[in-house]
Amino acid sequence: MKLKNILIVVKDIEKSRQFYHDLFGLDTILDNDGNMILTEGLVLQEESVWKKFLGKDVVPENNSCELYFEEWDIEGFAQKLETLYPSVKYVNRLMTHSWGQKVLRFYDPDGNLIEVGTPM
């Protein structure tokens, strides 16, 4: 068995597509009526589609999982994030863990948690 994709729920699929393209360089592989597959295996699904299938509400900022990205130029990424999305909501701005890894955590426009860290 193989893990194929990670799906996150979004309110505005085009806004989210732009966000993930701007910050992480993810491109669209397939756009299919409320479902969009991006490179690296990230799938965006519109909230209305998710609610129809699941029959439950979406809880933004529930902090139950995160998308994790690695970036060598973490300072450059932090600057790009601040420039392109100055109103982003941070969990923590750029910091260094005791083991030396630099990370920052923030929410995407729909409250999905993202961590960007330097490779270990």
TrEMBL record:
It comes from the Bacteria. Residues 2-119 form the VOC domain. SUPFAM superfamilies: Glyoxalase/Bleomycin resistance protein/Dihydroxybiphenyl dioxygenase. Pfam families: Glyoxalase_2. PROSITE patterns: VOC. This is Glyoxalase. It comes from Ruminococcus turbiniformis.
